[in-house]
Amino acid sequence: MANAWRRPVIRIAGRALLVLLLLATAATAAAFVAVNRGGRAQTEAHLGSRPRLGDPDTFPIPKVNPPDVVGWPPGKAPTAPRGFSVTRFEGGLEHPRWLYQLPNGDVLVAESATLPKNPDSPVMGFLNWLRRNDGSTTGQSANRITLLRDTDGDGVADFRGTFLDNLHQPFGMALLKPAPPHAVEPAAPDGTGVMFYVAGTDGVWRFPHTLGETRITAEGQKILDLPAGGYNNHWTRNLLAAPDGSKLYVTVGSASNAGEHGLGVEHRRAAVLEVNPDGSGERLLASGLRNPNGLAVEPATGTLWAVVNERDALGDDTSPDYLTRVRDGDFYGWPWSYWGTKVDDRVRPARPDLVAKALRPDYSLGAHTAPLGLAFATSFPEPYRGGAFIGEHGSWNRGEPVGYKVVHVPFADGMPSGKPRDFLTGFRPGSGDSTTYGRPVGVIADKAGGLLVADDAGNTVWRVAPTR
Fold first, then answer.
1. Residue 26 resides in a domain
2. What is the full DSSP assignment across 348-410?
3. Distance (Å, rounded) from C-alpha 114 to C-alpha 135?
4. Does any domain span residue 7?
5. Which of 39, 175, 209, 464 could make a disulfide contact with 400, Cβ separation 3.0–4.6 Å?
6. What is the pLDDT of residue 284?
7. pLDDT on residue 200
8. What are φ and ψ of residue 24, in 5° steps?
9. pLDDT in tens, 89-143
10. pTM
11. What CATH number has the domain bearing residue 384?
12. Total tally of structural domains belonging to the chain
């Protein structure tokens, strides 16, 4: 008889516990989202060579304030400064992330998307749900490179074809002719030995290439494996050939925010690697760079620069994403410190010896702006002649959104020389509205004197050019 009434009580207690757990989860979720709205605007004091840093935020629930991407309404486009025109170079793409221009003027577009992270994890599942409309995270990736050609020079592509497909989240691209002993056989079909390189999330491939061909049909060769297992928080892999063609530089972002998955998974990550054109001779060029993306050589000095996404969950104004030089042996602190020797107390074990060696970046772009694209352009009129153009993908975890634009950082004598200027804006309608039309990523200066901007959320490549 005793067992007969215990079973209903156990069932009732179990249901009550389930209800309490659901209520607690809902309350946590509500708090998770509630703290995301509002906040301070980013000011010029947070930008430049000596920015003001906010105090680390110790609130246990991080902010989440993702964009709500709706695409570009008919007739609407980003806004450039007076004296510049904006045209839709090509639309209807599938998450165009990165751009590369071939010597004949053809433009290559890497179409790839962020895949949902750890969907079986309740926490990551919830984060994926919150970011379901961010325009970059999808259940699939196009995994191709598309060729665009503007045959009549009107600033709009009139030919489009698949250049390469069946890739694994392609991103960075490069073209070079490897010199012995790093040349490969067979050479390109035209006998020139020119190779096309593409970096996917798990490795670098190269393919024989004939200038002018609209599709690569030759078999490729994987020359370098890259770490992509586990959480794979930052999947993009950029490529840049050294000016003399002797080396390739490869960016690999961290597997985590601040080392929370253990440092064993961070081997060869949060770094810029240097390899020979055949993939041999790998070495660490610079490290402690949480998520380096854009790489470019400053034309006046020949110095390599990068834009880097810093860590999250330390508050609206900490820690700054940045633009910095990349030199042999540089260490920028991740995960133990940020902005030089500012210690991140979340990281264990502490490494004061490494913190003491950490370099302070050259230039703050503001926390959470998510700089991805980087290009130096010399053909524009003043005040945009020279300097760096940077595609800021935009925040997803700041009370008042930031980024969502292309900025210009003026340079003098090979170094940043002033605050950033807005160059291409209008990707969001305004403060207090999560509606988002697009998100800029890769930027390149084209051979006709314009700037091309990949908009992965708006599925468009924009072209900005001076009108005078």
1. no
2. SS--HHHHTTPPPPSEEEETT--EEEEEE--SSPTTSSSSEEEEE---SS-SS----EEEEE-
3. 9
4. no
5. 39
6. 98
7. 98
8. -65, -40
9. 999 999 999 999 999 999 999 999 988 766 556 666 666 666 667 776 667 899 9
10. 0.90
11. 2.120.10.30
12. 1
